[in-house]
Amino acid sequence: MPLWFVRGLRRGVVTTRYPDRSEMSARDLPTPPAFRPGALTGEIADGLVAICPSRALTREGGTLIFDVGACTACGRCGEYAPGAVTASGEFELAAARRSGLVKRIGLGAEVTR
Amino acid sequence: MSTTTAGGGPVTTEAEAAAAEQLRSAVARQFGRSLHIRTLDTGSCAACEQEIRMLAAPHYDLHRLGLFFTPAPRHADLLLVTGPMLRAFAAAARKTYEAMPGPKLVVATGACALGGVYQPDAFSYGSADQVLPVDVWIPGCPPSPLALLHGLLVAVGRLADKVSGLSFVAGASS
Amino acid sequence: MTAVRPHTSRRLPSVMAGAGRAGDPVAVTQLAETDLEAVTAELARHPGGRLADLFAADTDPVILRAVWALDLDQRYLIIETPVSGSRYPALSEIAPAAFAEECEIYEQFGIRPAGDKPLNRVATPPQADIELPRLGRAPAEPPADVHAPHVVGGHAFEFPFGPVRQVAVESLYYGLVTSGEELVDLYLFTWHKHRGVEWRAQGQTPQQALFHIERAEGLSAIGNGWAFAAAAEAALHIEPGAAAMSGRAAALELERLYNHAAAIAALCQACGLAVGRAAAEIALERFLRLNAVVFGHRYLFNVLAIGGIRTAPDLAALRAGLPAAYGELRRAADALLATNSFLDRLEATGIVTTEEAGRLGLVGLVARAAGVAADTRADHPSGPYSGLRPAVATQAAGDALARLRVMLAEAAESVRLLETLIGTGALGHGAGQPEESGTPRPGPAGRSGLGWAESPRGESLAWVQLDQSGRISRARLRPAAVRNWRGFDDACRSQNVFTDVPIIEASFWLTVAGTAR
Questions:
Q1: Spatial separation of the C-alpha atoms in residues C312 and B167, rounded to whole Å
Q2: I want to staple B99 with a disulfide (CB 3.0 to 4.6 A). Which of B43, B73, C89, C471 is the partner?
Q3: Is A73 within 8 Å of chain B by CB?
Q4: pLDDT tens-digit profile of C176-187?
Q5: How many whole angstroms separate alpha carbon C56 and alpha carbon C78?
Q6: How many structural domains does chain B have?
């Protein structure tokens, strides 16, 4: 099939160099949130817990517990509290321990309850 | 995180992490740069499967990394599990795992398999590790091919687990 | 060939008299059980009439709802029939398309059609130790385990395949009855993927439920999500703004483009044409990256909201990226259409006749490739589609090659629609104010609405009923896959051999998740 052979040569290589080089298209991927403890009040934390559709967030007193594994990076938390939540930009999220995906974030702002 | 054995299957606990680590280095030694992957859909929405198929596409080409797909569990070294582990599917999942020769790895793939989308209920166990001994967890809904490549390379010990060291606090250095 | 439907006025079925106002896209009417058969027969004879869905809601009494699409009249008609006993008139005797739904209603609500026809297992697994929650009452007897009446005799034998099958495809159980090469019969089990999406939606606000609806069938997140959102909006009397509707249309066309590219890649894989697969996958990856840049997600999750859209498209990125991505697809298609070994493999493979497509109520490209020019974007236009007037691509042959040609024509049309949306400035900023998530809207109990959208696989339908507090009391989601799997067994049986099955499956481009939601 000379047609395909010539076509392939002309097309060139599209393959990513990842993981040896960083991959530009990664910056367009949705990523889990990162939190600003200074802006996280107890009230905001409770609101975030309530709004998360995948139950990735729970609150234990002065700590917001974030399960990166359960997160779908849907962005609802960032819409709810743009001042306290931003995108982490991390896409290399594979963990060799399940517990490595569970993050404890201290509520920095005045904590109620 | 300690988990219960609601599914009746083995689960990875903190105490077994060291053993898993040992297995991983054994796998890296044994398989070198040739590892065969079998996929297992335990109730996914089809998006994870599409992203896994993209691994073999020209843009990602997992073959260049010595990773290959195999349809036969008996030829597979690694089981890539998607979906929330539906109860109706658990028997098939166990059989697939048992059909694989040891040493073998299980990689839970996507938010469903990690417990994010479906909670444990009458339909599903809620996550893959309730039924299968998971070695590596890849978050994402669905995980992009890049995230899958990273996860597979973590599984065979060629890249480090990065996320365990991250704090997910904005502006923090790690 | 393409066809734009003429908007002729025709005599409406008698049941439409007094059902809704003329010009309303949806009419609702109540009907007694005794009249159901006669009206069903009349509607089945009506030109462009097809039974699009059949489902039950409520318990005491159970209310049966038949959704008829009157495609030439640009209307949907919902017929509500309270069923007092445990049996109702067998609609599948008149409209065979209703059979799978009759089985589903039996499993979920315990009522069955009159007669002794065995009802198949659809969603409930046969394992004795697994008892899934139901939408209504359990049936008196468990459903039959045999999916289709199949005969194994002579030299034929049954070859079970699955549910764990090829690599990186969904779980699906095939019962293949074969004499060694020719496919005598085929039946499918999908209950092991049933996740109870409709059951999960109960008690949630529409905005909350959208999360699982989008993930019911990930490759139709927009098609199913739009249908569901439109149903909820109809129930709530919310009208999304024009910019938001144009945004939805842009997302829907992007969904179609990446799905068709993926289907073409799968077709090449099924035919063993690795070079063609690689070329199609380059186009597919370009489309997925375009989705990520324009809407923030490769599979367009998290784009929709009840009352609008959550993510406004990045217009500049769409304008810049679309020609390159489509160019890849076009070049791959040109090369494929010049590769005779590939085309020969598709020709006369998996034939669906026009008669079958009509009888089984098939939708989308499978129906269009069999000569049925049905497309909800043209027949039941909503949002910008009434102005865009999409051309409906059809083919007559009904084989895998016809489906490939329809896909290519539709991809070209999707690009034209996207360019029109960009060019007319319909995709302006200001996506509208979507309903605040999680806030229920109180109102009269029993409010309901029907929604639809033309997903890449065909018509997605959704119906939502709300209680007094604004939470869902019953949600119905009928992805296109539910319909078209019904044509799949017939297509496989029509003079095909074993190795044709993967080709037919790729050319149908269905998902198991969509039917086993």
A1: 30
A2: B73
A3: yes
A4: 888 777 888 888
A5: 12
A6: 1
> Could you count the other beta carbons within 10 Å of the beta carbon of residue B14?
11
Is C81 in contact with C30 (CB distance < 8 Å)? yes
Q: Distance between CA A21 and CA A17 in Å, rounded? A: 5
* CB C191 within 8 Å of CB C209: no
For residue C139, the one-letter residue type is P
To test the contact with chain B by mutation, choose from C167, C208, C293 the residue with the greatest count of B C-beta atoms within 10 A, namely: C167
Six-digit token pair at C488? Answer: 């799949």
Residue C344 exposure: Cα atoms within 13 Å on the Cβ side: 4
**Chain C residues near residue B47 by CB distance under 8 angstroms:** 215, 218-219, 221, 299, 301
Tens of pLDDT, residues C191-215: 889 999 999 999 999 999 999 999 9
Angle at which helices C315-336 and C274-295 cross, to 10°: 170
Q: Are the beta carbons of C513 and C171 closer than 8 angstroms?
A: no
The enclosing domain of C46 has a CATH number of 3.30.460.80
Question: What domains can you pick out in chain A, each with its CATH number?
Answer: 27-106 (3.30.70.3270)
Interface of B with C in 87-146 (CB under 8 A): 87-89, 91-92, 95-96, 112, 117-118, 122-124, 141-142, 144
Residue C261 confidence (pLDDT)? 97
CATH number at residue B103: 3.40.50.12280
> What SS3 class is residue A51?
helix
Assess whether pLDDT exceeds 50 at residue C389: yes
- Residue C351's domain spans which residues? 241-428
Cβ partners under 8 Å of residue C141, min gap 6: none
pLDDT digits (tens, 9 = 90+) for C443-471: 888 899 999 999 999 999 999 999 999 99
Q: Would C474 be classed as within a structural domain?
A: no
Q: What secondary structure does DSSP assign to C311-364, as a single string? A: S---HHHHHHHHHHHHHHHHHHHHHHTT-HHHHHHHTTSS---HHHHHHTT--H
Asked if residue C407 is part of any domain, the answer here is yes
Residue ending a domain, choose from C113, C140, C159: C113
Structural domain includes residue C25:
yes
State the average pLDDT over residues B107-134: 94
Boundary residue ending a domain (C57, C78, C113):
C113
Mean local confidence (pLDDT), B48-62: 94
Neighbours of C136 (CB within 10 A): 18
CATH of residue C294's domain is: 1.10.645.10
